Amino acid sequence: MIRWWISSFQLAELFISSVVHLLYGFYVYSTAVAADLSQALSECVFKSNVSLEVKKQDPSKSTVDDLPPIVLVHGIFGFGKGKFGSFSYFGGAEKKDERVLVPDLGSLTSIYDRARELFYYLKGGRVDYGEQHSKTCGHSRFGRIYEQGKLNVPPFWHYPQWDEDHPIHFVGHSAGAQVVRVLQQMLADKAFEGYENTSENWVLSITALSGAFNGTTRTYLDGMLPEDGQNMKPLCLLQLCRLGVIIYDWLDIPLLKAYYNFGFDHFNLSWRKAGLWGLVDCLLGNAGPWATGDWILPDLTIQGSIKLNSNLQTFPNTFYFSYATKRTRKILGVTVPSGILGIHPMLFMRVLQMSLYRYPTDVPPPYKGYRDEDWQDNDGALNTISMTHPRLPIEHPSCSIVNDSDCQPLQPGIWYYKIVEADHIFFILNRERAGVQFDLMYDNIFERCRKHIFRKTSQTLPNEAP
């Protein structure tokens, strides 16, 4: 009888969670479409005024090209500029600085694949996922081509001069922060064929917003098996997500794919290439990214993050910052959500679930010394302990701060982290929801990049202490 009640509760939770996610996805999609229609109408009505404004611009007065780009890297289910019309994943934060790039990477592809895409988005050329990796994971070695010129006609490259003398600032949200770390390690390892001069010094700074450094217990609640962190439960939210993505990609409707793409084009899931039997194979789990584990969720388990982190370094010449978010508090020693109004409706139940989660006692813990109480504080998607700085399998140098000014003067090679009262999507998608906190945080990030971060040379300036 007890088992029946537990099963009923799990099915009800799965149904409610699925409906909430679908409704929120529809809300975002419809908002983007409405914004595009409104913009198209405005451009049509005020076309003459727009033309006059363009003619008045004086490109000779602009020094934008002299600034190191600030690259905003989205997280899971995210999108970059050019997708979802004029809707902004970062809530319009990219408008705060003259030299901000927002790449569109695979929203559900693995962190490895996304790091490769990010390199070619910036440097140019045809995306090369690597021969060995592509064979192992069962997808095409090459992806889209980023060409020179043809502005506003993607895909084109964005910073071909990128090198050690022209480094870049990166700001990554959620899994996007881990993507940047993997990219920096690839640069240090000279992992891009035809680019033998890459180094970790191509990255000037990394700022993480709710960065997924050490995995999250959310993956197990959504269906990843805690036994291995690779496979999924037969019936879970992630299985429903998998079926939806397979059908979406197999139908391959150009209008929809141009508006939003999960990023699995290199797996050739389209009906044009896979055919009907290819669809059946994917649905049965015998083909596609879910068969080889080359997608984002295994990378976000604690085990998957430890595997990734074992090959990633914190480099001595790069500046590192992290904003870790939490929406929990302790009452009589019990971790609970910190109010209702401050948490997005889609995330409130998730915050509660994660604060109550207990790792199964009948399977080995994900690492030696794991304690459930360490992982109870969360923002509805990631555990706060995971977001501060890389700490598994080894602890990286770190320093906790309360105010952004506390880390002055800045030192490279150290993760400065600050814990912020916010849920996982507080600083993205909806700018109005975060209010003044949105502007304060992004203003601080951009000001730090522009005024306080620079790479020291061997020379000592007159006003600089040796």
List keywords for this structure.
466 residues; alpha/beta; Rossmann fold; 7-stranded parallel sheet; two-stranded antiparallel ribbon; 12% strand
How would you describe this structure to a colleague?
- The chain is built from 16 helices and eleven strands.
- It is of the alpha/beta class and 466 residues long.
- The strands form three sheets. Strands 2-1-5-6-7-11-10 form a seven-stranded parallel beta sheet, with helices on both faces. A two-stranded antiparallel ribbon has the order 3-4.
- Strand 5, helix 5 (175-188) and strand 6 (203-209) form a beta-alpha-beta unit.
- Helix 3 packs across helix 5 (175-188) and helix 7 runs antiparallel to helix 9.
- The longest helix is centred in the first third of the chain and has 44 residues, at 2-45.
- It is globular, with a radius of gyration of 22 Å.
- Mean pLDDT is 87; it is low at 50-62 and 457-466.
- The dominant shape is globular
Q: Mind describing the biggest β-sheet?
A: 7 strands, parallel
CATH homology group of the domain at 69-229 and 295-452: Alpha/Beta hydrolase fold, catalytic domain
Strands of the widest sheet, in order across it, are 2-1-5-6-7-11-10
Q: Classify the helix fraction into a percent range.
A: 25-40%
Structural class: alpha/beta
Task: Kindly report the average pLDDT value.
Answer: 87
Intertermini distance: 74 Å
- Strand fraction: 5-15%
Give the H and E element order.
Answer: HHEEHEHEEHEHHHHHHHEEEHHEEHH
- Report the C-alpha radius of gyration, rounded: 22 Å
CATH architecture call of the domain at 69-229 and 295-452:
3-Layer(aba) Sandwich
CATH class of the domain at 69-229 and 295-452: Alpha Beta
Under CATH, the topology of the domain at 69-229 and 295-452 can be stated as: Rossmann fold
Number of helices: 16
Extended strand count: 11
GO biological process, one term: lipid metabolic process
GO molecular function, one term: hydrolase activity
Pfam family, one: Lip_C
Organism: Gossypium davidsonii (Davidson's cotton)
